[in-house]
Amino acid sequence: MRSPWIPISEHLPDNDQRVLGFIPGNRVFLPGKDLQWEIREVVVLRFCMDFYANDENKREKHGLHFWAGEGSSNHFFSDVTHWCPMPSGPEA
Fold first, then answer.
1. Where in the chain are the domains?
2. C-alpha separations of 84 from 12, 52, 90 in Å
3. Residue 59 phi/psi, 5° resolution?
C-alpha cells in the first residue's frame, strides 16, 4: 500500500489548498503552560504559492513559497518535508 504522504520535492499542493503537513521535530508550546511544549509533527497548513515573489531578501532566505498555519503555526517552506491531502469527513 502506497503512503498518502507526498514529498515536497516531488509535487506541491495547489495554491491555497489546506493540507496536512509533516514537520520533523516540530515543537508546539502548550497554552497556559510556562514554556512547556510537545512534539506535533503533523499539522494543518494552507499552501501559499509564490508568497515571497516580490521580496527578494525573504525569498533568498526562506524560499519562494510559504505554509500558513492555523493560529500561530505558520512555517517557512523548508520546514515541511511532506504533505498529504486533507481526509474527507465521515459519511452520514
1. 7-30+45-85
2. 10, 23, 18
3. -60, -45
The residue type found at 86 is M
Q: Give the residue among 35, 41, 32, 50 at the shortest CA–CA distance from 73.
A: 41
CB atoms within 10 A of CB 46: 17
Contact between residue 50 and residue 58 where contact means Cβ atoms under 8 Å apart = no
Query: In the chain, what are the helix, strand and coil shares in percent, each to the nearest 5?
Result: 10, 35, 55
**21-40 confidence digits (pLDDT tens):** 999 999 888 888 788 889 98
C-alpha cell at 35: 514554556
- What are the Cα distances from residue 45, in Å, to 32, 39, 55, 73? 23, 16, 22, 8
Distance CA 80, CA 89 (A): 24
| Per-residue DSSP letter, 77 | G
How many residues are recorded in the chain?
92
Q: pTM of this prediction?
A: 0.85
